[in-house]
Amino acid sequence: MVSTLPLRPGLEGCQPYGAPELDVAARLNVNENPYPPSPEVIESIASAVAAAAAGLNRYPDRDFPALRSALADYLARESGVALPPEQIWAANGSNEVMLHLLQAFGGPGRSALSFTPTYSMYPEYARDTLTQYTTMPRRQDFTLDAPRAAELIEHQRPAVVIITSPNNPTGTALAQQDLEIVLAAARGNGPQDLPGQESTDAVVVVDEAYAEFRRPGVPSALELLAGNPHLAVTRTMSKAFGAAGLRLGYLAGSRELVDVLRVVRLPYHLSALTQAAALAALSHHEALMAQVASLRAERDALVDWLRAQGLTAHDSDANFVLFGPFPDRQAIWRRLLEEGVLIRVVGPEGFLRVSIGTPEEMEAFRACLSRAL
Ligand code: PMP
Predict the structure, then answer these.
(1) ipTM of the complex model
(2) Ligand 1 pocket by C-beta < 6 Å: which residues?
């Protein structure tokens, strides 16, 4: 049937984004933390939510200073970079933070540049904000060719440059000197909407959704915030924190940048219940993140095991590993699923991505893959 709905041009034939949500024994397809919160943490979140429920007749705190302050404290502990709450922003997942960034800085006639293979949601945020989405391939080993990126930025003058570090689906971290090259190129090479207009900077977004899983010695882009008001670093409670269901993503950037995001957000976008639950969860950050070290160890052991099977497995600073190649990756994916192990078909042709689960889940994955090989 031909629809008579006035669908916006560009949305014809588009499908809703999402990986399969299947109830199987080992769910290793969306890079979640496999460990649920402890009874103690559940209790603490439940009582915080109950207290917030008592005030549900009122709209929530629009600017959530308490939560921004708690997120700033967490970042200071995690990365050693101390920031005031005014330099923190948050929304319903880092997905929504990225949407705010493109709503504020993208738009018709402007472009966003990212480096492939990378996270498959970026083109959707671009589409939804009428921003042109452009990409430059990463090197063979998935590192960023920063001098080439700098040339492209100077030529293209994008509004937003998105670099994922550690990158999804490859696990590759960004070298600090490469980020410095990109930040320098972005200065003065942002969009020019009218001829003769004063120059702008491109906003450089480093998506650090998986930062807590990085190996020792790998720095965070947060360290470069001072002196770079055009840098934004996004983080999330969905991964290392083990709180994907909470929907709490956040960003660190200059006051000027955060203030612009406040213009485009919906009023009261963070519900009182989300704010209360996130604050309670943050007060237990050590307990919630207790498994990060073991997930890292499990990841490194998996890379070694995959290589011992004669496969290519990429070094990872995240909680997943990209491995292959397979002449028919769909067939391997299906075979594993038949045995209750759900992984992801994503990334370069022939490759698959597996999230790091519990030791039992990883054992099931290894056993199934051995049988499939
Ligand atoms: N960035 C990257 C690179 C991701 O892989 C993900 C989740 N898969 C996100 C952002 C979004 O995370 P969330 O919205 O749950 O914070």
Answers:
(1) 0.99
(2) 31, 93-95, 119, 164, 168, 207, 209, 236, 238, 244, 249
